[in-house]
Design brief:
- The protein is of the alpha+beta class and about 400 residues long.
- Helices cover about 45% and strands about 15% of the residues.
- It is built from 15 helices and 14 strands.
- A 5-stranded mixed beta sheet has the order 1-2-10-7-3.
- It is globular.
Amino acid sequence: MHIDLLNPTSFASGQPHDQFRWLREHAPVHWHDEPGGRGFWAVTRYDDVWTVDRDFQAYSSEPTIMISDPAAESSTFGRYKMMLMMDPPDHAAFRKLIRGEFTLPAAKLREERIKALARQIVDAVVDKGECDFVEQVAGEMPSFVIAELLGLPLDDGRELYKLTEVIHTAPEAQPPGAVGQAVAKMFEYGSGVMAAKRAKPGDDLASRLLAAEVDGRRLDDMEFLLFFLLLIDAGGDTTRNLLAGGLLALIQNPDQHRWLMEDIPGRLAPAREELLRYVSPVIYMRRTAKHDTVLDGRHIREGDKVVMYFGAANRDPAHFERPEVLDLARPAKEHLAFGAGAHNCLGQHIARIEIDAMLVEVLTRMKDFELAAPVEWLASNFISGPKHMPIRFRRAE
């Protein structure tokens, strides 16, 4: 089996489950060469991913959660770090600044508004009989919700997410410098938000971030901009790609679609969790060994890159029965789509509410789904999901 988890072509039709399957069976902690880099350990079994993600004392999120090391001489952020790339206690201190916005009670307070947005999004396409499901449906909800959280116009949320799509696309799959330009545009917009909210604070997360303190001091400009980038970026990935990848899975598994339609209110929660497991929108996160250690019999050296593949872990037959099968009635068992440790997805409660609201609107008001053209996947080895998914459908009466 040829293993290549760096080339985005390996992910051209979704995650490379054939490679993941071979790795779980033959080399669950596999040394992967890296052209231009030192190489990394690819971790594919559930228990090992769980261990690495939770043990921040052995596996650090610094200097980055991406496979490629940052080039010190050309670092965009200088001495600054995004929250995702911090370890406790710094990570906990920064996470605390926004945690209150993303608790389950706080997310539930937004549920009715999220349901209204879902109706609005489906209203815009339901009579057309066709749409690009990613651009016109799946991508709208998270873009709108994070825009409202930050106190931004809804249309701006949509445009900002387009920049994150560029950031996630492999550099070799787009024009030179595209990623840097997208980050610069994000920072330019964020600087305008910063100035506007400082001049006239509102009841929104951006204003509260600017007023918050870490260790007795307020965030400086770059700290705010990195928070802004993270919120726009992470605020859309899971929902957008789960909804698009989830509908594709239902189209490809009509028996599961029929089962869900028989009792959407009673079956939606387990169905959503199974779709999260099955689709696994975030492909990987990297950690760096803080000291020599052993993982599944392999000797990890201090400084080694250790990369957790969530889509592989979520199809580990040692943890899930018939893992390659989409089974919406699958008994509840903890998946790793949102991670497992200190860095577990802060927005998972809002994401679940968004997913439920959109699935209810889409599945009860649209029917007879079929692909109108081949699915085009995001050219990325970091985030998995359709970039374009043209569909045809009929309005449900």
